[in-house]
# Entry
Amino acid sequence: MTAHDLWLLSPELSVAGLAVLVIIVDLIIDKKTPLIWLAAVGLLVPLGLTLALWFNTPETEIGVFGTVTADRFALFFHFLLIGTTGAVIIAGATYSKKFVGFQGEFLALVLFSVSGMMLLVASQDVITAYVALELSALPAAALAAFLRTDRSLEAGLKFLLLSALSSAVLLYGLVYLYGATGTTDIAGMLEGINGMTADGDRAFGSSAVMLGVVMVVAGFGFKMAMAPFQMWVPDVYEGAPTPVVAFLSIASKSAAFAIVLRVLYTALGTEGLAADWSILIAILAAITMTAGNLLALSQRNIKRMLGYSTVAHAGYLLVGLAAVAGNSNSDNFIAGPQGVLFYLVAYAVTNLAVFFAIIAITNKTGSDMISGFAGMARRAPLLSVLLALGLLSLLGIPPTAGFLGKIFVFSAAVDSGLAWLAIIGVINSVISAFYYLRVVRTMFLDEPESEERVTADIPVWAATLVASAGLLIFGIAPSSLLEFARYAVFGVIT
Amino acid sequence: MFEGWLSIVVFLPAAAALVIALFLRNDSHIRWFAIGATVLNLVLIVITYVDYDRSLGGVQMVDRYADWIPVEGLRAEYLLGIDGLSAPLVLLTGLLTAVAAFASWRITLRVREYFIWLLVLSTSVLGVFLALDFLLFFIFWEIELIPMFMLISIWGSGRNRYSAMKFVIFTLGGSAFMLIGILALFLSSGVDTFAMVSIPSEGIKGIPDLIAGKDLLIPAGVIWFFLFTAFAVKMPLWPFHSWLPDAHTDAPTAVSIMLAGVLLKMGGYGLLRISVGMFQETKGFQVQDVAWLLATLAVISIIYGAIVTLRQKDLKRLVAFSSVSHMGFVVLGVSSIVGVGGTVTDAGLNGAALQMVTHGTITGLMFLTVGLVYDRAHTRYIPDLGGLALRWPLITVSMVIAGLASLGLPGLSGFVAEITVFLGTYEVWPWLTAIAAFGVVLAAGYVLWMMQRTFFGPRNERFQDIKDANFVDMIPVVALVISIVAIGVFPKIVTEVFKVGISELVRI
# Structure
C-alpha cells in the first residue's frame, strides 16, 4: 500500500475516520447536539477530497492492488452519497430526540455505512465489492433497529437476515463468474469472457457466466429493492426511524445500482452477453414496477406506501439499466446508464424532500398514517406544498426532476428496442397517480384533526427547502447535471 | 432568435400567480389582481394576434433557446412560436381565461389558492398552443393536470373527488401513450429533433419534413394511434368521453368554462397539428388511411352525444354532453383530409378549426349562464327550474343567445363553423355527413327543450326575491356575446388566420 493508494481511498477513509472521531467525542462530551454538527461539517472533508480527486486524477486511476478506482463514475456517486448523508444527518437532528443518549452511535453507524457504500461504488474487484457491501449492510441493520420498539427491532432483524441471505446468493454468483473467467478483477472479467472459446473450455461453459449474472443481479437486487426481493422493504420502511429510511431508500439504492452498472457494463458488456442480461433486467423491471405500484395502492401508512413506491422506482431505474444499445443499431450507447444516473440524482433530491417534509410533520403529529396528514395544507402550508411537490416529482409531473428522469430512462428504452417496456413504464406511472395524488388530496382537501399549526425546526426546514429547490432546478434546467452524468458514465463504458 | 414576447404571454399568468402567492393576502385584492392580470394578458394576446402577419404566414415571433436539454439522446429546445393554426386558439384562451376570472367573482373559499391555480392553468394551456418543441408541448400538456385536479376537487361540488381523479387518470393514461409516440418519433433515424414544424428562418427542419417517406422506429401507424389516443381522450371523442360529464358537472363554473372552452381544444389542436400535420406522407401509413375511422367516430360522437344530451336533467351535465356532440364536428371536419380523387379541399379542416373557436365561446357562455342560474337558484335540476325568464331577463337573454348559436342559427358563430364543416366533408363522406347533419336537428331539440323547461313556462314563485345578474356578472357575458356575433357576422377575423395555418398543414 502506497501513499498513492491512500490518496485514492481518501474519501472513504476520511468518512470512516469521521465516524471514529464521532464515537470518541461522544465519550467525552455530555451534550450530544454538537455531535450532529461535527458529523455534518466533518463531511466537508471527504467532499473536498472527492473534489480534489475529480480535478487531479487521470480518467482511469486504479490503485490498492488494482481493487479500487477513482474514476469519474465512482466520484459521481461519492458526491451523491456524501450529499445525501449530510442532508439526512442535518434533517435527522430533530428526529434524534427519539433516541436521546444514542446520537453518537447513530451518527457513527450512518457514517460507517456510507463509507462502505463509497467503497462499493469505487470497487474494481468483486471481492472488494463484497466486503464493501457487508460494511454498508451491517450498520444499516443496526440503524433499522435503532428505535428499539417491536416494529423497529423486527425491521432490523428482517433486514439483517435477508441481507445475509442475499449476500450469500451474491457470493455464489461471483464464484461462478470467477470460475468462468479466472479473475476477480471487474475489467479483467471482460477479457476472460472475450477469451472464452468453446463451451467445453470450462465447467458449465458459457452458461456459468449467465448463472453468475442471474445470481449477482439477485444478490444486488435485494439492495435495489427489486422484485421479487422486495419483501423486506415495506416492513423496514414502516419500522425503522424515518431518517434511516430516507438514507436507505437513497444511499443504499444508489450504491447498489452503481455497482450493478459497473459489473454489467464493464465486466459483462460484450454484445452477445448484454443482449441476454438486458432481457432479464427488462423482465425484472416490468415485474418490479408493476408489483410496487399495485401494492402501494392500498397502503394507509405513508412510510409503507413510500416503501412500495421505492420498489416501483427501482423498476423504472431498471428500465434504464436494461436499455443497452446492443439491442438495436442505435449509436447512442450511453443513453441508458446516463438516464439511470440522472434518475438516481433526481430520485435522491425528490425522496429527500418527501422524507424531510414527513419528518417535519410527523414529529408534531406523531402518526405515520396518511389520514394524519388531513388538512395539513392549513396547518403547515409551505411544508404541504413542498411535500406535494415531492410527490408530484415521484409521480413524474413536469416541471420536476422526476419527470425528466422518467423521460430519460423511457427514451433510452425505446431507443434500445424496448418500446414495450417503456409502455409498461408509462402505464405504471398512471397507476401511481392514484396513491400519490391521494396523499396530496388528503393534505389539501380533508378537514384537519385540529387547527394547531405545525412548525418545524430550522435544520429540517432548510434541508427540505434545499432538496425541493434541487428537484425544481434539475427539472427545469437539467443540462449541467446531464453533462456531469455523461462524464461519469464513461467510467464504466469504454 | 429570442424575442421574449411569447414567453411573456405564456408566463405572465404564472408570474401573477407567484405574486399572489407571495405578497397578496386580502381576498378582494387578489380577485382584482387576478382579473387585472388576465385582462392584461388578453390585451397582449390581441396585440399578438393583430401583429401576426397573415400575408407572410409560417411561424412567427419565435422564442428559441436551443441548449435547453442538449444531450444526444434527447435534444430538446425551448421553442415557442405562433402560426395561423395556433393564433386563434391563443386568442380564445386569452378571452376565456379573462371570462373565467370574472366568473370566479363569487368564489369565497380559499380565494388565494383558487386564483393561483386558475392562473397556472392558463399558463399551461397557452404553453400547449405556443410550444413548437414536442417535449415542451408535452410538459405543458402534463402541467395542466395538477391545477385542474385541485380546482375540481377543492372547489367542486357533488362527487368532486371522484371526478377529479377520473379526469387525471384518463388524461394521464392518454398522455402516457403520447409520450411513447413522441419518443419513437424523436428516436427514428434521421430525426433527432423535437421541432413540431419547420421554421426556415431559424434553420429548423421539423418532424413532418424529416419523417416523410422514411421508416420509423416503430411502425408509423402504431405511433399515430398512440398520439391519437391522447387527443381523443382530451377532445373527448366517443368512446373516450366518459370523464367529461363528471368533470364538468362537479367543477365550479369558471373551471367548466376553461375545461370546455379551452382544454378540449388542446385535443383538437393536437389532432390537427400532429395527427394530421405530421402523418400525411409517412411511409406505410398515412392519416388518410384512417380518415374513415375518424369520420365514423365523429358521427357516433355527434349523434350519441346529442341523444344523451336530450335525456339530461342537470343543466351542467346537459351542456357537458352537448360538448361531446359539438367536438364531433371538429373530428368530422378533420376526416375530410382524405380528399376526393386525390385533391383535398381544406374547407373541412378550416371548418374544424373554426368549430373549435366557436364551440369555445358558445359553450363558455352556456356554462357561464348556467353558473349564474345556479348561484341564484342553488339547483341545476331542470324540473325544479322553469319560468325564470320573467324573473331574470338578462340571464335568459344570454342563454337564448348561447342556445341559438349552439343550434346553428345563421348570423351567430355556430352556423358558420358547422356549415363549413359540412361543405368540406359532404363530397368526401356524403352519407356520414348526412347523418351528422341530423345532429344539428337534435341540437335544436335539446337546446329549445331545455330553454322551454328552464326559462319559460309559468312564473316560478320559488325565486321571487332573488335578483337578476348584476353589472360585474354581465361583463364576461357581454364579451362572449360580442365574440359570438362578431364571428357569426364576419367570420373572416378568425378564418383568415386559420386559412394560413391550415394551408401550411395540408401537404398533399
Observations:
- The radius of gyration of chain B is 22 Å.
- Chain B has 20 helices and two strands.
